[in-house]
Every structure is written in structure tokens, then in C-alpha cells.
Amino acid sequence: MTDPSHESTDLLRRAGEGDTAALGTLLEAHRKRLGRMVRLRLDPRLQGRVDPSDVLQEAFLQAARRLAQYLREPKLPFFFWLRFLTGQKLLELHRRHLGAEVRDAGREVSLYQGAMPEASSACLAAQLMGKITAPLQAAIKAEMKLRLQEALNRMDPTDREVLALRHFEQLNNTETAEALGITPSGASSRYLRALKRLKDILGQVPGFIEG
């Protein structure tokens, strides 16, 4: 569970009683983690057109409106509920701006029988390119990013998603398993396999920061 502490439980209780400061504290506690998720899963074609902070603001407004409903039957840990709402806002934005281009079911991943945009190879490659230290000409950088995308595309989709959750969103193993509906041991083995594959890929990239 993401929110096991007595403090979080107390904040949820107070928020449910109408304490807006308690709700604000709860939401702010998860802003950084959810921001990573939004930046990772925002379609590259919308970067520069959509501000991740605006996505979070819309998700938080929805959370405030639906908090009483959530508290009556909290099927998910609070963080995962927020993550679900944020993912839904991302999907709405993708469909609004890109339409039929994102309607392929393969562009979404399951989360508690809902869906959110996948962490695409293009998004993962962009994150990885941000760790290149060597000065590169634009053409070389574009070619390198394309090679990374092609290599990531050859990975098993679930392994790629586990990698996104663990390595980029920085969820722990239990949270990753919970997000994808698999066992913790399965999530762990998939992560180790994906990480090995990623290291093999990055080992061919000059100037990449290890770690």
C-alpha cells in the first residue's frame, strides 16, 4: 500500500470532513511522483503544447470533487487513485488533440481495469537522451534517439512498462506489481530482465551516464 502511515490516514479523514488544508497536503505529497508520470507518458507531439502542471491541476480538481465517493469505498491506495485520475486526464488530452491517432488499444496500459497512456519507446528514448553528456550534433543526436527507440521497441511490452514504472516513475517493486496486476516476484524478475536489456542497449551509446 502506498499510504500506510497514520499521518496519511489522519489527513484523509480530515480531508473527508472538509478540511481543505489536509487535502492540499495530501495532494502536494504526491505532486513530484505524479509529475514524473505525466512527463514520461505525455505524447511527444504534445510537449510544448501541454504543460504537465496543468494536467496535474485538472487531476487534483477532479480528486477534490470525487474524494467523498472515493472514501466511501477506497478500493485503491490513495496514491494509485490519484495516479489513475491523472492517467485518465492524460488520455483525455491525447484523444482531444490527436484523435484517432491514439485510439489503438496498444497505446494504453491497464491499471485496475482502467487505462492510461503507455510509456512509449519515443518517450523512454527522450528520457534516456537527457542523460547523454557528450556534445552531439543535432543529426547525430536524432539518429541515436531513433536507434534507442528501435531497440526499446524490440523489448517485450510488459518488460518495457515495468522498466518505465521502476526506473523512470521510481515506483517500488510492490507498487509496480500492484499497478500491473502481477505478482511482486513476477515484477521483480521482469524488471531485472528489462534492466539488463536496457544496459546492453546503453552500453553502445557513447557518453551515457551510468546509474
Task: Give a verbal description of the structure.
By secondary structure, the protein is mainly alpha-helical. It has two domains: 118 residues, Rna Polymerase Sigma Factor, Chain: A, CATH 1.10.1740; 93 residues, Winged helix-like DNA-binding domain superfamily/Winged helix DNA-binding domain (Arc Repressor Mutant, subunit A). A two-stranded antiparallel ribbon has the order 1-2. Strand 1 and strand 2 form a beta hairpin. Helix 4 packs across helix 5. The longest helix is centred in the first third of the chain and has 21 residues. The chain is globular. The protein starts with 5 loop residues before the first helix and ends in a 9-residue tail after the last helix.
List the strand order in the largest sheet. Answer: 1-2
SSE string, helix = H, strand = E? Answer: HHHHHEEHHHHH
Residue share in helix: 55-70%
As for the number of domains, it is: 2
Task: Give me the secondary-structure topology.
Elements: H1 6-16, H2 20-29, H3 31-41, H4 52-72, H5 78-98, E1 108-111, E2 114-117, H6 121-129, H7 138-153, H8 157-168, H9 173-180, H10 184-202
Helix pairs in contact: 1-2, 3-4, 3-5, 4-5, 6-7, 8-10, 9-10
Quick summary of this structure?
Helix content is 65%, strand content 4%. It has 211 residues and is mostly helical.
List descriptors.
single chain, 211 residues, mainly alpha, Rna Polymerase Sigma Factor, Chain: A, Arc Repressor Mutant, subunit A
